[in-house]
Every structure is written in C-alpha cells, then in structure tokens.
Amino acid sequence: MVFSEFENLLGTLASSGVQSRHLDRGETLLRQGDPGEDLYWVKRGRFRAIHNHGQTTERVVGEIGRAEPIGEMAVLGEGTRTATVIAVRDSEVLVIPPEVFNRFVDTHPREAVRLMRVIASRMKSVYETGPRLVLPNAITIVPANRETPLESYGKRLAEAFHGLKGSRALL
pLDDT band at residue 45, thresholds of 50, 70 and 90? Predict the structure, then answer.
C-alpha cells in the first residue's frame, strides 16, 4: 500500500483524530518499555529502532523510512514498546490513536492484512538476517574547503555508484 492511499483512508476515518508530529534529528519518538498507545506512520524522514538488552548492550534492530508504520507491535499486542525509536534526520509522522486504528482495521480489513504482512516481514528479517537498514535516497556532496576539486571528485563518485542498481548521478 502506498503512503497516500493509507493517509487518505485515515483521513476519511477521523480527520480530527490523526495529527502530524515533527521530530528533529536525534529526537526520540518512543522508548522501549513505555506503554504502546499510538501507532505512527512515517510521512517523511527516517528512524532507527534500537533494542536494549540489559543495562549495557544495545542492538540496532532496523531502520524505518517513509510510508512505514512505527509502534505497531505494541499497539496490536496491547503491550509495551519493544524498542526505542530515534529520528535519524528531521522527520514527520502521523500519530494514529488506538480508536482510529481500530476503526481502520474494522472498516478496511484488506489494508489491515497488508499492514500485518509488513510487520511479519520485519520480524522475519530481524530474526533471519539481522537489522533491516533503509538506504538513503539522496546524497549531497559539499566541498570541505575552497580548494577541493568537487567536480572531479563528484565524477569519480558517480563512476563508483554507476554499477549499483537504482543509482543515478546528477552533476
């Protein structure tokens, strides 16, 4: 399901019940162990999910990007947050209260199944292959000083990325 479809569905359910929230880079969206109340949907930006094992061990369990849910496991399981989620860059999420989410599930069962598949896929990948990272969709190069040969550096970098699937260089 693409982001705009989901956003439109939420809007039809309860336009006053879904709010947008801005987070600055480094800001914590939710903390492991806190009650799982709201569900979040990434409107723009990127987040990192970190699971704490005891007092001293942290493990990155994945990254979450645009058009993906955050906090769904605690909301569906009516439990506590399983990870701390931090904004990797300035980001914006839709805050979906439980009553709006429950109406969504009741009135749009096919879309709810799609969401369950996203959750199952995330859990499977964490167990089988380790954390799932979201690759950046843009890289910007700025000169470190006025003497840096930016154009030739950019061309060399573009050549290096040329063989990667889905990459494109604009110079």
Answer: very high
